[in-house]
Amino acid sequence: MEDEIDAEDEAAQNQLPTGFDRICCIAATESDRECPTPDNRMFESEFTLQQISELEVEGDDSPCAYLPQQTSTMTYRVARTLTAERYESLLERGWRRFGRTLFRPVCRGCQSCQPLRVEIGAFSPSKSQRRCSKRIAARGDFEIDVQMPRVTEEHIQLYDEYHADMNARKGWAWQPMTPEDYHSGFIAGEFPFARQFEYRLNSSLVGVGLVDVTPNVMSSIYFYFSPELRAEGFGTWSILQELCHGSANGQKWLYLGYFIRDCSSMSYKNRFRPCQVLDAFVDDSDSPRWRSMTEMETKKGRGSDLSPA
Q1: Who's near 171: CB < 8 A, 6+ residues apart?
Q2: How many CB atoms lie within 10 A of CB 18?
Q3: Pick from 95, 120, 186, 277: CA 20 to 30 A from residue 179's CA?
Q4: Would you give per-residue pLDDT tens digits along the chain (309 residues)?
């Protein structure tokens, strides 16, 4: 069976919009927390660099990469600094990260993107996931090295092989990656919680998972791998390895990004149980509400309205 993980980059890696409707500064101190302005002069004049921790930008409307009939609008935050505690709070409110850029959707009239997280300590693999592990084991002994993110010629070559395959199979827009763009997209910020899971088979690099690991949670950012391993379900297996890592190190949740029920490339995420979805995006000062997927499916079976509150 084909492994559809992970199609998240087609929208998310267009990290900063070409235009914006709103810009605000988020200060490191709560007393000067937010200051909306129609241009960026206030960023320079009202705050010192030491005060600014995040700069928020609302992007323009654009066609949705996941649901073609919909229009997408994203809010972005460019983080100068980001502690593990702050990042955990943002993940809990539905934010995702690529490099220094945090983002989440603010689409008008559509709430299909639902942040999803898996409860690591309670996770138990399904029969299908156990079969996937057996298929991977039959390919040989894989070495897994968890390290700080880096970029080498080997990473670029594998990244390009993966995206050239996705271009041929699914029509993904693609051009060869440069070390500079790779660093900007995945490594910039050099945040202390950033990790890279390297998968090797017979000493050859066959998979790379970009994963954030804080004291309490993990966030699966992106995974690319050798197209030769697609049929074995290598993407699924990589998530199983992240869950094993979290179980061994005491993390409570693994965030898998956005679950989109009507998009085959994003609907796989609810196969990892037990899991929860975020009820609605909330401001930094408001408490988020997460609901179990099992509870939602039970209510759906009874004909209840499952749309986010």
Answers
A1: none
A2: 8
A3: 95
A4: 445 454 454 444 444 444 445 567 775 544 444 443 333 333 444 555 556 789 999 999 999 989 989 999 999 999 999 999 999 999 999 999 999 999 999 999 899 999 999 999 999 999 999 999 999 999 999 999 999 999 999 999 999 999 999 999 988 888 999 999 999 999 999 999 999 999 999 999 999 999 999 999 999 999 999 999 999 999 999 999 999 999 999 999 999 999 999 998 898 999 999 999 999 999 999 999 999 998 888 777 655 444 433
Side chain identity at residue 258, one-letter code: Y
CATH 3.40.630.30 in the chain is located at 115-301
Two structure tokens written together for 302: 């009874």
Tokens representing 240 are: 């199983």
Looking at the domain 115-301, which fold is it?
Aminopeptidase (3.40.630)
